[in-house]
Design the sequence.
């Protein structure tokens, strides 16, 4: 009897190295670490290829001291309206990314995730390189860069639903926050790598800032295609049940189908009815059905505003540092680009700290809310005192990165995985990519608006930009109030957090 078409095929690398697919020769832990490492490298390379536009902004844009000098910058971005055009480029990429995210989640739950992810990485690398080629071919047509960014955004949208689905398949709920927090540092690590690589080669021409990260993601895609195993069941392994929650064992559709097919073959004619039951129970969840799952909508809209802030920093922080004197000194393009990595280093710590805290207190929403609440004064202090000295700039930038990226990392990883495997859908991991795509796709709409608004608002002064960021973080926190209250009430009913009973009730 033929197995269902939805079964995930073993990667080609496992054919080259047969011992890898033998459950007796390699432990579950070995394969979990392998999946974690490969998906980490994959998404870090996505973010490395996403970083160059922010690094070259100050080179492409006009000289702030002489905005109408045609000898500076790169046409069509070197005029007084150059920051607007640069913001529109960010919008082109991120709008395509947001739309593509919704579609990628639906596709990722229905085809081989390994192949889908590999295609997305290669496409991202090709169009990142094409942007850089505009330097050598002396391209000054704005439409060219817009089209390239749109295509790049579509291919980049493939990454997140795929890697979250793989991680959800390999890791249960126990300590998921800490594991996902550590794993989600790939975002900041990718930003750091992209910033350093792009900044280091600016002296050879800004095109190299795109070519090297583009080639990097193509190289990593080869390892993804050869060695990424989407779920443990496809190689004969099975996740152990968590003691606290039986639903934490993410049983993928492919694994369920495989187990039931073997059972059907042993039971003979009675298998026909079972095939229909397997197909129905393991069907991928619908887009609108996923929106109705408890907690999906509030976290999705919270991420809209949280990611708006994170991506404004991602795309405009080097530009802001370059045009803001620190201790009375104007920093160079290269120094500003490298210094901006401090925000991402703080993001690494913030993601891990948020994940660990949410595991410790067993409350994702409360953790996110606390980080969002503290991030507001952090941004105020960074704007007011960040330029006093290099020490204050680094410290406050680090603190801002820690608090801004903490909830962003937690929501896009552990929260998305929790919501995609909750009891209301019986732990069906075929909802993982769809739910994670809805949450991050909605967040990506905010990510698209943030850099665009910053490009326009920055011409009026950076105080206006920071006001927008602070307002966004405040709204993000307010959107979680109801979920936070429900979470606290649940803890009180369990006999925990009794000192918060007044708030819960």
Sequence:
């Amino acid at each position: 009897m033929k197995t269902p078409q939805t079964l995930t095929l073993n990667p080609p690398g496992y054919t080259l190295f047969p011992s890898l697919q033998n459950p007796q020769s390699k432990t579950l832990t070995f394969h979990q670490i392998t999946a974690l490492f490969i998906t980490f490298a994959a998404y870090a390379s996505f973010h490395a290829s996403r970083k160059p536009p922010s690094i070259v902004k100050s080179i492409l844009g006009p000289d702030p001291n002489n905005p109408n000098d045609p000898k500076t910058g790169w046409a069509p971005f070197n005029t007084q309206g150059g920051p607007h055009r640069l913001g529109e480029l960010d919008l082109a990429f991120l709008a395509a990314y947001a739309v593509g995210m919704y579609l990628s989640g639906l596709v990722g739950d229905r085809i081989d995730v390994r192949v889908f992810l590999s295609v997305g990485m290669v496409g991202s690398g090709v169009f990142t390189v094409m942007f850089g080629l505009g330097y050598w071919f002396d391209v000054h047509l704005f439409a060219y860069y817009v089209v390239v960014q749109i295509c790049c955004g579509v291919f980049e949208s493939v990454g997140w639903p795929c890697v979250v689905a793989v991680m959800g398949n390999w890791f249960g709920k126990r300590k998921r926050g800490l594991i996902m927090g550590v794993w989600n540092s790939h975002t900041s690590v990718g930003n750091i790598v992209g910033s350093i690589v792009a900044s280091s080669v600016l002296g050879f021409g800004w095109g190299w800032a795109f070519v090297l990260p583009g080639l990097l993601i193509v190289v990593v895609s080869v390892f993804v295609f050869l060695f990424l195993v989407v779920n443990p069941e496809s190689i004969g392994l099975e996740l152990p049940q968590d003691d606290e929650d039986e639903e934490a064992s993410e049983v993928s559709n492919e694994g369920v189908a495989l187990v039931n097919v073997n059972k059907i073959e042993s039971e003979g004619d009675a298998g026909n009815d079972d095939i229909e039951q397997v197909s129905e129970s393991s069907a991928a969840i619908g887009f609108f059905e996923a929106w109705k799952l408890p907690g999906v909508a509030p976290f999705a809209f919270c991420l809209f505003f949280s990611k708006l802030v994170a991506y404004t920093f991602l795309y405009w922080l080097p530009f802001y540092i370059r045009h803001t004197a620190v201790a009375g000194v104007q920093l160079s393009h290269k120094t500003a680009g490298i210094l901006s990595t401090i925000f991402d280093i703080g993001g690494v710590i913030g993601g891990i700290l948020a994940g660990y805290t949410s595991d410790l207190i067993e409350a994702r929403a409360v953790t996110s809310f606390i980080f969002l609440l503290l991030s507001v004064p952090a941004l105020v202090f960074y704007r007011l005192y960040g330029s006093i000295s290099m020490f204050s700039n680094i410290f406050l930038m680090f603190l801002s990165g820690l608090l801004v990226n903490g909830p962003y990392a937690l929501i896009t990883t552990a929260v998305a995985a929790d919501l995609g495997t909750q009891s209301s859908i019986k732990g069906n991991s075929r909802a993982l990519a769809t739910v994670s795509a809805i949450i991050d796709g909605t967040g990506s709409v905010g990510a698209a608006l943030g850099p665009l608004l910053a490009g326009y608002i920055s011409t009026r002064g950076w105080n206006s930009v920071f006001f927008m960021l602070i307002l966004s973080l405040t709204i993000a926190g307010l959107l979680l109030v109801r979920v936070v209250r429900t979470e606290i009430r649940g803890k009180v009913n369990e006999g925990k957090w009794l000192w918060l009973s007044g708030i819960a009730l």
